[in-house]
Amino acid sequence: MSAFLSDLGRSFFGDIDPAEDNGYSDPPPRKGFFTDTSVCIGCKACEVACKEWNLIPEDGVELSGMSYDNTQALGASTWRHVAFIEQEVPARVAEASVAPAPSAPVDLGMPAPTLPGDSPDAAEPTDFRWLMESDVCKHCTHAACVDVCPTGALMHTEFGTVVVQNDICNGCGYCVSACPYGVIERRSGPAGNPAVGIAQKCTLCYDRLTEGQTPACAKACPTDSIQFGDLDELRERAAGRLDQLVEAGEPNAQLYGHDTRNGVGGTGAFFLLLDDPEVYGLPPDPVVTTRHVGAMWRQAALAAVTLLGGAVAAFAAGGGA
Amino acid sequence: MADDDKADVPGGPGQRARTRRRGRGGREQLVVPPAEFRSYYGKPIVKAPPWKYDIAAYLFLGGLAGGSSLLAAGADLAGLPNQRRSARIVALGGITGSLYYLVHDLGRPERFHHMLRVLKLTSPMSVGTWILSAYGPFAGLALGQEIVPLLPEKLARRLPTELISRASRPAGLVAALAAPAVASYTAVLLTDTSLPSWSAARRELPFVFVGSAAAASGGVGLLLNPLDESGPARRLAVGGAALELTADQIMQRSMGITAEPLHEGRAGKYHRAAQVLTGAGAVGAVLGRRSRLLSAVSGLAMAAGSACTRWAVFHAGMASADDPKYVVVPQRERRDARGGGEAYAEQVGDDRAR
User: Subcellular location, in the record's words (chain B) (predicted)?
Assistant: First the structure.
């Protein structure tokens, strides 16, 4: 009964702290990821580190034909996924102020590292660019997966992140269809692994967080494309970085998921994108499904009353033929 | 998929230009410009649930059971013994099958009882489990009266047969009160998801489902009962069929682009079959009310039509998850309508306006 009552007290929209909203009295600051895709080099260290730390099985060896992306999407055994987008865009003309090297290097016949653009046979700018983005569970403020889970296996932690409790999940798969980002998935595969048949997704390395450590993916990222920390601070940092990029001539640069007024109340993992979200396989305007649950129950109740009334009418008109 | 060529190319400016050019061609006069959208290699954005045919069967059997309990309670009060018996059997059979499919579909069926840890109004699956748990035992007890006379004498002497027989009517009435919820909650189960074709149907789907439940249970009542007891079942079935077909039409119009999957592929075949079977069944039930054979065939057709409706809705939702178009286009329209940005809360509000 207490679960029932606490459920009625939950919020479905607005700017709230998910930990407090879920009954933690004095939670630590909300933690999250800021993924700055402008500095992602597509090395996939995050994918590998995540698998290593969380003991996630392999996805199988399969070439997708989607650029360098053979993991293709987030899923039960892919909690970090690097998207590779090959785009045709007009080449940017190099700025004229770049001065030539003061003295031409003398070729000693030795392999030597050079700065990009220093060597005379450096490639011309082309009408092509890469977009790379390391995607992850969004850890929504109003998480549809948590709302619809019929066993209470999905929950918000004290850090405001969302985790599945493996020992409670019964594998119904309802969270899979609830997630507006297509993140969570039920793991299939060889029996024996205790997580088979159970919903699986990024835990934001809950086990590392409780020890005061950085999640594996952020730790492994060589370019700081994945930044971990207190969400408030990350949002500030992201706003600064966005201004920098827009000034530098990235007109489509945008933050995605940071706004607490969005359909899921802001996400715990948000992104700096260089193009529209759908280009990266992200929904442009996601809304937590349970936002409309009141209206849905109302319609169902109206329909139920219609059926009851119809049945009464069917008998009221007379018993036999 | 006709859009394969488009879907293979990740979003670039080139792709956007190409989709635009098609509309400007001059020769073709399109009423609605082709939906412009970009995607990541055409990969799905939302995930379909890992549900197989089990859940489609579960949707149908739940509706059949709910409608039959109403029919049984009515027949009990109106004094139609054959109708009462058949409807009670169908109700218990339906709900048993429905529960079997529900548990069978779980990734960890041995943990079914974990569903009873909590009751969450935000989770239609949780609410549904409780509705079924409350309804099932009463639907079972209602059958007691029909079973007692069939028991071997030895066993009957050891059981409180008198009590069972007397409990049947009140149990049947309680089951009938819970039955409309059994028939309608499955609509919320589908619409409270991110699958575009399900969530877009959230206003009308409950009415399609209760209409379908009435058509199925009334139809089975027509099939199993003699003419002199089939009046209420006939009216329930025909009324249900009319509601189902009408609500379905309104639903298709309000769904916008996400109605497409309902007309294509497997869902499309089931949807057409549902309309033909339900419509023909209803007409046959009205015209053939003096013929036992025609009534039975019409009843069967409406029950089959009801099943096809559930299958169609099920498969349409699953198909809508596979094509990112159904996620991107409506969401972009919503975003553009309020002038971009993420501020959903302020601009769109809730469902009250709808």
Answer: Cell membrane
Q: Which residues of B touch A287 (CB under 8 A)?
A: 344
Q: What type of residue is B30?
A: L
Residue written as tokens 């379905």?
Answer: B248
Top pLDDT among A217 and A105 is at A217
Q: Return the minimum-mean-pLDDT range out of A25-34, A167-176, B14-23, B312-321.
A: B14-23
The pTM for the full model equals 0.88
Chain CA centroid to CA A108, Å: 49
- Whether the per-residue pLDDT at A2 is higher than 60: the answer is no
Query: B258 and B247 in contact (C-beta within 8 Å)?
Result: no
Contacts of A310 in chain B (CB under 8 A): 214, 236, 239-240, 243
pLDDT at B345: 60
The yes-or-no verdict on residue A3 having pLDDT over 60 is no
Rg (chain A; Cα; Å): 25
pLDDT of residue A117: 62
Q: Which domains does chain B have, with CATH numbers?
A: 53-322 (1.20.1630.10)
Report CA B148 to chain centroid distance, whole Å.
Answer: 34
Residues of A in contact with B75 (CB under 8 A): 315
> A170 vs B111: CB contact, 8 Å cut-off?
yes
Domains and CATH numbers, chain A: 16-90+126-297 (3.30.70.20)
Of A111, A124, A178, nearest to A148 (Cα)? A178
The Cα of B312 is separated from the nearest Cα of chain A by a number of Å equal to 18
Q: pLDDT for A14-38, tens place per residue?
A: 678 888 888 888 889 999 999 999 9
Tens-place pLDDT, residues B59-71: 999 999 999 999 9
| Secondary structure (3-state) at B160 | coil
Asked if pLDDT for residue B308 goes beyond 90, the answer is yes
The pLDDT assigned to A287 comes to 93
Tokens standing for residue A135: 């995607």
**In this predicted complex, what is the ipTM?**
0.89
Annotation-wise, does A175 bind a ligand?
yes
Quote the CA–CA distance of B82 and B230 in Å, as a whole number.
Answer: 9
